[in-house]
Every structure is written in structure tokens, then in C-alpha cells.
Design brief:
alpha/beta; TIM Barrel; eight-stranded parallel β-barrel; 14 strands; about 15% strand; SsuD_RutA_monooxygenase; FMN; flavoprotein
Length: about 375
């Protein structure tokens, strides 16, 4: 099956190992960052969201204007904009980007972060609201006649839109969340379900559960997984690089705790990352969990460590689980994006093509 490799850009330079440089919105950095991913051969780039970050829709619009081919994955939080308005905004952006848009819907894994924007719903209610939100969104995108809706969280009368997505039938829906309410929403709505970088055993279990949820609605579903590859010419050099990254991350922890609030992330995804970390810093030979443990399971913080060949082989094991999209980003984000494009991305694509060709021969022989 075809694979997709996604990167990530932010509106300013920052990571677990780098203190923020420049203003909150740095247009020159965004332009260079997006163009670096396009040059490196990424298929798509994620623009993440938080309650304090610059607007993602406008960041995608700017980055799209600075690039030609690369596609975008816009992180969007349901609940802060009416779904009818969001449907028009996203459909309009799909046209302005030439059909290069997909949207990753995030219900929210932190009460504190949600409350900064005035959202005081509990965890399960947020997913129930997302379910209704996505139902309305898809209706606006796909229905030709005005419609009424009266639900738990939204009530509209005569909803309609002159603008429909350039991509048909709608802008692709990515979705994350590992709790039971999240899996039910994914089964009903997601085109692609996104995992953080878990161990092979945990990832395989989640793939099976989400696939079953989607099948209950007569749907197929794709899968994405996120890692922070740490690559070097030799394995020893890669692990030494990982040790330096851990040291730099620890030096940043006082600032990170002040900015985000102390303690581990609340989400089920964070709990799953920390469960892997509890097994040790190295899991499945290449999966490095030290940063996840150090930061309380915040975001996609697990790494695959080794030479480009070794990391590509590790990713291939996840491909064998049915995961066909890899989100990879580095701890030195711009520099690492360029480095991935030189060896890692071509190796992953070549190994997947070889694996697919082998399977095709086996099917033909059978």
C-alpha cells in the first residue's frame, strides 16, 4: 500500500531541547521550515495547536502560499468555533491550497489547556461533542439542501454552505485519542487514526481495536504513527546523540513545567507512552522512551534510535501492523527535517516498495 510521510512545522523555533527563539509568529522561519520539508520530500506537514499558540488556519494558509506541492495537516480543536463556520473556513482553505488540506481533530487531553479557552467540559463530554461536531461538519460539506439539527451541543436551522471542499467528498479527517470514547468517535468518522509512538505490542493492539470500531460502522480506516527519529552514521553515535538530547531536555524542564503546568499529561495516550517507558528506556530494540518519561508523556515524545537503515527497518515493522503513515520530526526541528530527507525518507520508501513487491509475488504464487 502507498505510504505517507508527514513532518511538523511550528510558527517559531522551539523544541524540548531548544528554548524558543524569535517572536511567537516568525514568518521567515515558517517559510523556511515549510520549504525545507517540501525539498526533503515529505508528503504533508502538521501544524499543531494549543491554547496559547498562534492560529493554525492562518499558519497553514501562509505556509501553503510559500510552497507548491507539499500538503498540510491542520490541527483543529472542536468546540471553539461553530461547526457550520468551521466547515466553510476549511472548505475555503482547501480551495486556496489547491486541495492540499487535511484536518486533525483534537478533542483535548488536558483540562487546564482547554480551560484557558473557556472550555470546562469533562474528558468524555469533549469526545461526545466532537462526535456531534464532525457529524455536522460532514453534513455541511456533503449535503446540497439546507438542513436543521438539534443535538446535545449544537442547534442549527437551515444550515447550508455555498462553498464545498475542493477534495471530494470532504477534506480528509485525521483523529487521535486512545480512550474508549475516543475510539468510538474514530470508528464513526476518521479517515486516518493517529497514534503516538508506542511499542509494537501496544500499537498493534490499538490498530486492531480501532479497525474493529470502524468495521462496526461498515468503514475502513488508515493509521498514522508519530516518532522522533534520532539518526547518525553509526549506532553508537546515534545513542550518544540521544544521551545529549536527554541532557538538553532536562535542562529545559523548569521552563517547560512553568509554561505547561507541572505533572504528567492527563490523556490516555500519555498514559500509554508512560506504560512503555515503565518497561525501560529502550523497548523493541530501537524505541527510546526517556524523553516521554522525562516530560510526563507530553505529545509524541518517543524516538527510534540508530542508523538511517536501522530506523527504516524499525518503521517497517509498524508498516507490517497496517500503519501506512509515519509522522517524523526531530528535536532540532529544521535541521533534522533536512537530514531525514537525505537518507531516512528514501530508505523507508524503498523498503516499503520492496515489501509490497514481495507480497505481490507471494499472492501471485498462491
Amino acid at each position: 500500500m502507498p505510504i505517507q510521510i508527514i513532518g511538523m512545522i511550528q510558527p517559531h523555533e522551539v523544541s524540548e531541547t531548544l528554548a524558543r527563539r524569535g517572536p511567537a509568529v516568525d514568518p521567515a522561519y515558517v517559510r523556511a521550515f515549510a520549504q525545507a520539508h517540501e525539498h526533503a520530500g515529505f508528503d504533508r506537514i502538521l501544524v499543531p495547536a494549543s491554547s496559547t499558540s498562534p492560529d493554525t488556519l492562518l499558519t497553514v494558509a501562509y505556509a501553503a502560499a510559500a510552497t507548491q506541492r507539499i500538503r498540510f495537516l491542520l490541527a483543529h480543536r472542536p468546540g471553539f468555533v461553530a461547526p457550520t463556520l468551521a466547515a466553510r473556513q476549511l472548505a475555503t482553505l482547501d480551495h486556496y491550497t489547491g486541495g492540499r488540506l487535511a484536518v486533525h481533530y483534537i478533542s483535548g487531553g488536558s483540562d487546564a489547556d482547554q480551560q484557558r479557552d473557556g472550555d470546562f467540559l469533562g474528558h468524555d463530554e469533549r469526545y461526545a461533542r466532537t462526535d456531534e461536531y464532525l457529524t455536522l461538519l460532514r453534513r455541511v460539506w456533503t449535503e446540497d439542501k439546507p438542513f436543521d439539527h438539534e443535538g446535545t451541543y449544537y442547534r442549527v436551522k437551515g444550515a447550508a454552505s455555498e462553498v464545498k471542499p475542493l477534495q471530494q467528498p470532504y477534506v480528509p479527517i485525521y483523529f487521535g485519542g486512545a480512550s474508549e470514547p475516543a475510539l468510538r468517535v474514530a470508528g464513526r468518522h476518521a479517515d486516518v487514526y493517529a497514534l503516538w509512538g508506542e511499542s509494537l505490542a501496544q500499537a498493534g493492539d490499538l490498530v486492531r481495536r480501532v479497525r474493529a470500531e470502524a468495521a462496526a460502522h461498515g468503514r475502513g480506516i488508515g493509521f498514522s504513527i508519530s516518532f522522533r527519529p534520532i539518526v547518525a552514521p553509526t549506532e553508537d553515535e546515534a545513542w550518544a546523540k540521544a544521551a545529549r538530547i536527554l541532557e538538553a531536555t532536562r535542562a529545559q524542564q523548569v521552563q517547560i513545567a512553568h509554561a505547561r503546568g507541572a505533572g504528567p499529561q492527563q490523556s490516555e495516550g500519555a498514559r500509554r507512552l508512560l506504560a512503555d517507558a515503565a518497561r525501560g528506556d529502550r523497548v523493541d530494540e530501537r524505541l527510546w522512551t526517556a524523553i516521554a518519561r522525562e516530560t510526563g508523556g507530553r505529545s509524541n515524545s518517543t524516538a527510534l534510535v540508530g542508523t538511517p537503515e536501522q530506523v527504516a527497518d524499525a518503521l517497517l515493522k509498524y508498516y507490517d501492523l497496517g500503519i501506512e503513515t509515519f509522522l517524523v520530526r526531530g528535536f532540532d526541528p529544521l535541521v533534522d527535517a533536512v537530514e531525514y530527507g537525505r537518507e531516512l525518507l528514501p530508505l523507508v520508501r524503498a523498503k516499503v516498495a520492496e515489501r509490497d513487491a514481495q507480497r505481490a509475488l507471494e499472492r501471485k504464487a498462491a
